[in-house]
Amino acid sequence: MDEIINEHNKKEYPPMHTAEHILNGTMVKMWGCKRSCKSHVEREKSKLDYVFPRALTPEEIKSIEDRVNEVIQKDLPVTIEYATQEEVKHRFDMERLPDNATDTVRIVKVGDYDECLCAGDHVQHTAEIGTFRITSSRYQDGMLRLVFRLG
């Protein structure tokens, strides 16, 4: 591959960034929503915002946590593939790509659980993440914010 692909504008903490992928995949699978529309991923704590119709109950939040931890404990491989935008335009939301994105895109897969376009850093296997926990949630004006930590 001769083309240089997009570089990510930020150096993430790989375990937290991979946990973000798993949480996004879980939200899509459990609730049928889209991936987060806004994220702030840091080493100590991270926040993801979703367009969502309501607040979640404590039991629902616990079920999300349980599912994410179940995926982490499976020790799934995290792999990378490359494709052209044309090849993947029907699989992914291309609107999140920057205007100057290269034709070649990077697909990050968490086993067979989740896949998305991403230029960030990730662990090689999900067991490297540790324990995931949602520390707070807030619902306001059609937006659900989930704050989470590892460890």
Explain how this protein is built.
This protein has 151 residues and is of the alpha+beta class. It has one domain (14-150): Threonyl-trna Synthetase, Chain A, domain 2 (Threonyl-tRNA Synthetase, Chain A, domain 2, 2-Layer Sandwich), CATH 3.30.980. It has 3 helices and 7 strands. It has helices at residues 14-31, 58-73, 85-88, and strands spanning 38-41, 46-51, 78-84, 104-110, 114-117, 132-140, 143-150. It has a 4-stranded antiparallel sheet, with helices on one face. A 3-stranded antiparallel sheet has the order 3-4-5. Helix 1 packs across helix 2. The chain is globular and about 40 Å long. It starts with 13 loop residues before the first helix and ends with a strand. Mean pLDDT is 93; it is low at 1-6.
- How far apart, in Å, are the first and last alpha carbons? 38 Å
The CATH class, by name, is Alpha Beta
Shape: globular
Q: How much β-strand is present in the residues? A: 25-35%
Provide the descriptors you would attach to this structure in a database record.
3-stranded antiparallel beta sheet, Threonyl-tRNA Synthetase, Chain A, domain 2, 25% helix, 7 strands, 151 residues, 4-stranded antiparallel beta sheet, disordered N terminus, alpha+beta
Give the topology, please.
Blueprint: H1 14-31, E1 38-41, E2 46-51, H2 58-73, E3 78-84, H3 85-88, E4 104-110, E5 114-117, E6 132-140, E7 143-150
Antiparallel strand pairs: 1-2, 2-7, 3-4, 4-5, 6-7
